[in-house]
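Anyone? Bumping this.
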Amino acid sequence: MSLNNNENNNSRRNFLFGGIAATTAVLTGCLDNSHPFHTEESIALTGEKVKLLSVNGDVIEIDRAFLKPVPDLPTLTNDEERKGIAGKKFVMVIDLARCKNLRKCQSACNHMHQVHPGQNWIKVLGMEDSIHSAPYWQPTTCMHCDEPPCVKVCPVDATFKRQDGIVLIDSDRCIGCRFCMAACPYSTRVFNWEEPQLDPQVAEQHYSCESSMPQKKGTVGKCDFCPDMSRKGELPHCVQACPNGVFMFGDLNEDSVTNGSETFRFSDLIKDKAGYRLMEDLGTKPSVYYLPPVNRNFPYESGLENQTKETK
Amino acid sequence: MNLVWKIKPRKPNKYYNVENNNPISRDRIINDLVPKRFGKRGMIWTSILIIFCLAGAYAYYRQLTQGLVVTNMRDYVSWGIYISNFVFFVAISLVGSLITAILRLADVHWSTPLTRIAEIIAVSAIVFASLIIIVDMGRPERFMNLFLHGRLQSPIIWDVTVISTYFLISLFLLYLPLLPDLKILILHRKPSVNKFHKLYVFLGSFWKGHKDQFRINDKSINILCVMIIPVAFCIHTVTSWLFATTYRPGWDSTNFGAYFISGAFLVGAGAVVVAMYVFRRYYKLEKYITELHFEKMGKIVVMLGLLYLYFNINEYLIPAFKMKKAEEEHLRELFSGSYAIMFWFAIFVGMLIPIFILITKKGRKPLPMFIAGIMVVVGAWFKRYLIVTPTLLHPFLPMQNVPESYKHYFPSWEEWAIAIGSLAGALLIITFFVRILPIIPIYETIIEQNEESQKDHSL
């Protein structure tokens, strides 16, 4: 008895919903000019036919006049970009023994992300830990911390931690308070103090958190681990650009990292070469590991010639 | 008769009119305390403030069109005088809660003529604290994101919450005690000659002076006084947490909340002393703000100064004892490096010398108090600058791969114009307030004088 009632209720509800949906559909169909099946009479036929493959697999022919360029639409929604790539946990290993301050990583990153002149998302720092210890070159990216201090302090969720371990910035949401810059102990964040100098094509693109492009005035930017490249199955720009294979990028879940030409088992590499992370005592748990500058490929001094006056 | 009704008997205020023991008549008090037109000096003062405000507005227009690039803040020094000015404003606003609430709840009555001074300083400072923080934002048009996408975990959201709460409570603490005065102001002159008659009617026409109204008003003020103390502690503690929640040397301190609050009370009390002196001189209020008020305030400033000194010792000397690597560079720069002059200026002029001036009886006369008050306020402004900037110039990783201009900070003219404009704006609010409304509570003064006369008669 009660079951029947339920069924009745359901069917009545379905009927109601169906009716409403149908009415709305008809109404929008009548009112909306952008209805997909609405033919635009203003198109003048060229007479030239183009062959296309239909969704059914049939080859069809239409007039060239009906061809329109596909509008530039984002391929991922903001929600998907905030979630990250399922099943991944990105890590980077930077081998200090291989770095000679060529800064190809820096120029590639700056070029690809159109970083403002003078600013860098990757810095190659000349480090010397104490008076008697040996100097070395240390490329410094965003650490993509597992306990990111920047994410903790952001008042509007404009910078966030994704399930694949990447910390990104949503420049459409950032209010430019710069609390994250004060909070980051690695000083990795930069600010767009003025209107970014972008190529016209880039400036017209839809903003994507994953490519961090196009950057926006009054918001914060930083190294993003290039998740747009990972989606394409390619390595980040810095990894590709480095001729010495300093940067190794990979997935902790697969336990492998690669610089493009060599691939290592991550756990073995860290164990064999005594990998470490920066400022472990702060508890930020970075995703970037460093291999100490021992058995170096180049002497420290060979990197000095790349120190220009301005950027020293 | 309505006017002299009140809820609880208050102790007569023996500090009034010590020169001659006769109480001042009701009409005399009203005539002395109703707002006066600006004289020539008042007009010049107001015009100067307006010019500074306009200069600040123009600088902000430039910043809005060109971006924060017009400031000299860069990636390392990402917070500059806007933020130190913000901290200064929040600090100075704390005095409202001290003079109004803490002294009221402690049943101290000599402070009655100072309550409104303290409260208008609090309100104007908190208004400009909020404005200056919006000026500091890279995308001020996205301000609503704080409410649309606010994350409760972020200290900025805490700050927004407590500052708006504090602003509302302060506004009520300014407004409620004003109600009996508004009635006096409405009745004082005929509407035709009363320039602000409409405003007074709009603000206070519902106030009839009934017993019930007084009872409700008094109760509300008491409740607000209890409420404002924790909120006041929150605004400045949370402001200190904007720094203390980071890892940076000079900010990473568990001492920060108490250090900020003690400093805030000191600068607020200093500001009240300065305002007391100026209003007393300009409006000839010697009968109402007496030397005994200065004497009492002087002792309060000394106490607060010593308290601040205590927290300064904790804040600087204990890390200096250890000289951890990250702290060392920062502290050396403050004690003997490029910030040494400003640092010792802030310590001596903003704290130690005023303590030494005010600890003597002669130092607690109006003029030396005024000078000490100015020293406290100026020193406090520079102290806030020292809290914000030098820390940012001492990051953990070396400052490399950046243009030379990123490694230093001196505010640009736009930043100075906006900072000075905001200070002028806060003073302008106070100035206009004094022009429109009585800066010393008329009604309460009448009551206390009346009590004194009754007491004299009974003797």
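Late reply, but here is one note on the structure posted above: Residues 116 and 196 of chain A are 6 Å apart (CA to CA).
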